[in-house]
Write a structure and sequence with these properties.
Four Helix Bundle (Hemerythrin (Met), subunit A), about 130 residues
């Protein structure tokens, strides 16, 4: 494994652990941001390892499409992609009335953490992450 890949995976793991700590502290927006970032960094680690040019995007659906075109299998459902892509902007910026009402709660945070954990677990480059540590 490339050193740069390992670094991306370490950052992804840190984001995943942070997401769990933040939801336990009832800090839902930052928990969602970190869950999304964990998934994004796992996917970008795959790109780095395969020698692909990194894309300046936070869109999980875009990253999945890039990886699919390179025959890199990412195990994440369309529904999971939709959830993660839908929470990114609203968890990061207070847009007020620009977007539909969105109040993050523990349930959506735990769902996103579960998706991030699954992504870390099933990314062939990544080792399973124990988010309970």
């Amino acid at each position: 494994m490339k050193d740069e890949t390992r670094l991306w995976l370490e950052y992804a793991e840190d984001n995943l652990k942070s997401s769990k700590i933040l939801v336990d502290s009832l800090l839902f927006n930052p928990s969602l941001q970190n869950a999304q970032q964990s998934i994004e960094k796992d996917m970008k680690a795959c790109m780095v390892e395969k020698g692909l040019k990194l894309q300046k995007t936070h869109s999980i659906s875009s990253l999945v499409e890039i990886l699919k075109k390179e025959n890199i299998i990412i195990i994440i459902s369309e529904d999971e992609i939709d959830v993660i892509d839908s929470i990114y902007m609203v968890s990061k910026y207070p847009f007020g009335s620009v977007l539909p009402d969105f109040e993050p709660d523990e349930k959506i945070c735990l769902e996103c953490i579960d998706i991030a954990y699954s992504q870390a677990r099933y990314t062939k480059l990544s080792k399973p992450v124990d988010i309970n540590k």
